[in-house]
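U., I forgot to send this yesterday:
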Amino acid sequence: MADVPTSRAVNKGAAEPKLDERLARAMAHPTRAKVLSVLSERTASPKELEGVLGISLSNLAYHCRELLKFGCIEVVDREQIRGAMKTRYRATTRMLLDEENWERLSKETRSGISVAAIEEVIERATRAVEADTFDARADRSIITLKLDADEETWKSVNGVIREAYERIGELEAKAANSGQEKFRMTVSLLAYESPRD
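Result:
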């Protein structure tokens, strides 16, 4: 997916916000995190998103307009159907917020985004188990580590995850041009402070 969207609102005379700033603004509502998650996997119209997310059509149309304004999604096609315009969107960027922008979000918004992300991880893994693809490959990975960490370890582990994210993006771009048959792959990288047992 391209990091620079083709459709976005730009304030003339003002420097365009960095991608993670736009994501922070766009993610000010947890519904937008859910919409961006779906649109990063496939194209969809607000009506199609309504069926997937169970959120009202008018609410989804509004949040799609907001994501479009912040340059997180783009219009794929428009189609006139019975007097109404059906607009389909796709994500133009991945959802990755840096520490500074994450801290600027309200606690409620951060919690909403976190819950949406965890729900997505569980939902995708469940679908893969039910479709019998989760264990189809002997070299699939499940890594869960519980460790006692200090601040330096915390920052180092999150740095490793950020590096993995960037490297995986490079590998995806390389695969897009490989000429080989493609299949869907999901990678979930999590690092969080655990409650004491």
